[in-house]
Amino acid sequence: MDWQQLGLKVGLEIHWGLNTEKKLFCSCPNTLINRQADKLIERYLRPAVGELGGIDEAAKAEALKGKKIIYEFFDDANCLVEIDEEPPHSPNKHALESSFLIAEMLNAKIVDEIHVMRKTIIDGSNVSGFQRTMLIAMDGFVKTSFGNVGISSICLEEDSSRIIDSKKNIFRLDRLGMPEVEITTTPDIHTPEQALEAAEKIGMILLSSGKVKTGLGVVRQDVNVSIKDGARTEIKHVQRLNWIPLVIEKEVERQLQLIKKGEKIENSVRVAKEDGSNVFLRPIAGSARMYPETDVMSILVDKKLIEKIKNNLPETIDVKLEKMKKVLPNDVAEQLSKSEKLFLFEKIVSEVKADPTIVASTLVYTLKDIKRKGVDVDSIEDKQFIDLFKMLKDDKIAKEAIPQILEKLNDKKVEDVVSELGLLKITRKELEKIVDDLINENRNKIDKNAYGLIMGLVMKKVRGRIDGSVVDEVVKDKLKNMA
Ligand SMILES: [Zn+2]
């Protein structure tokens, strides 16, 4: 398709969770919870006169009158803020600093004063009926090979509660109040490929900041699409980056068909499906319905802090990749640069001083292999990896033992698993003794083809406890000396 002739305009809105310890407006933990709730809290949605006087979206609210919503509450992970019985605390300092850093990395201008705003949300996902959001910076850009893409705004906002049962309107409060950044680009993206590249670039920069969550479900992307003679469509929940080009192409096709039929196209909000097509959700509301959060004081941005952040921007993953290519095989470096284990790799190499190639291939390939076997590799903690590579560095285990240890690790201590599995490394001397004993026990079977037999018996005893090439050397040596 000739995108230029079609007058394609695309804008992106990317939401990404921050990895702070606590939530944005209270001290509850910034982690999801997967167990039965301690309490169920019932609320009813009712329209109320807003602080500015009018009833917002009156008709819609009327339809929701009396709708019962159930919230799953966790005693050790929720507080009165989430259930709107206590005013929000002032915004999490770490979340603010993270968003400043991200804004600087995206070349944006940070505002002088931050005001928390309320955005009306009436689907029940926010107990209060609104989402709190604050503008952090404006007017940034990212470079793409097709030219710069503008970043119109960077906001820091609270996530909503997550839907557990849509028929019964059950929401879980664990996610409510988690901090996330919202990055909005200007609609000056003109091809699907450029949209993908811009999204990848923004993702790369966010990951480079070290301040965002990694893994599944931490990113949400909305794609705005319009063409000349068509309408503006906001496509929500584009869950993967590589869906973006197809989502755009399918939406353009949809609009072109309607134009051909002579039908009028309305601006609308739609939801992306896995095949790249989309379904209607609702018409685009007018300007965002926002009003000030009167329970939180505005915040003057500390210029000195911004200066300090500006002078200490982290290295981007692009740059790290070039450096890694100098010490790692290219494919391992490429894989690692896309892996959420990149920062862990750097930490292990700098703190433990373990061999970069072994660390990288473990984090990239070994984990993938054992995950395929059904091992829950995501629950292995950084500390466990560090302990593991310390043992390798101290020559207490062989690199061959790493997969076995990781497979059996669960929440146990690395040291305990190593002794449980009998994987403590043996010395060359101990190996020689084992080889001598086995040769003696099998003396009557030794002939010129005995290498395979002895090697097999030895490996059965020492697998994972000493480098295979050492075993090979010792067995050959011993057999030669016998002859
Ligand atoms: Zn709380």
List the helices and strands and how they pair.
Elements: H1 3-6, E1 9-17, E2 39-45, H2 58-63, E3 67-73, H3 93-105, E4 109-110, E5 113-114, E6 116-120, E7 130-144, E8 147-158, E9 162-165, E10 170-172, E11 179-185, H4 192-209, E12 219-226, E13 233-238, H5 244-260, E14 268-272, E15 278-283, E16 290-292, E17 299-300, H6 303-310, H7 317-324, H8 330-337, H9 342-352, H10 356-372, H11 382-393, H12 402-408, H13 414-420, H14 428-441, H15 450-462, H16 468-482
Parallel strand pairs: 3-10, 13-14
Antiparallel strand pairs: 1-11, 1-12, 2-3, 4-7, 5-17, 6-7, 6-16, 7-8, 8-11, 9-10, 12-13, 14-15
Summary tags:
alpha+beta; single chain; four-stranded mixed sheet
Account of the 3D structure:
This protein has 483 residues and is of the alpha+beta class. The chain has 3 domains: 3-29 and 88-160 and 176-292; 315-420, no CATH class; 428-482. The protein has 16 helices and 17 strands. The protein has helices at 3-6, 58-63, 93-105, 192-209, 244-260, 303-310, 317-324, 330-337, 342-352, 356-372, 382-393, 402-408, 414-420, 428-441, 450-462, 468-482, and strands at 9-17, 39-45, 67-73, 109-110, 113-114, 116-120, 130-144, 147-158, 162-165, 170-172, 179-185, 219-226, 233-238, 268-272, 278-283, 290-292, 299-300. The strands form 3 sheets. Strands 1, 4, 6, 7, 8, 11, 12, 13, 14, 15 and 16 form an 11-stranded mixed sheet that branches. A hairpin with a 4-residue loop joins strand 9 and strand 10. It is elongated and about 95 Å long. The model has no long low-confidence stretch (mean pLDDT 91). Zinc ion binds at residues 23, 26, 28, 78-79, 81-82.
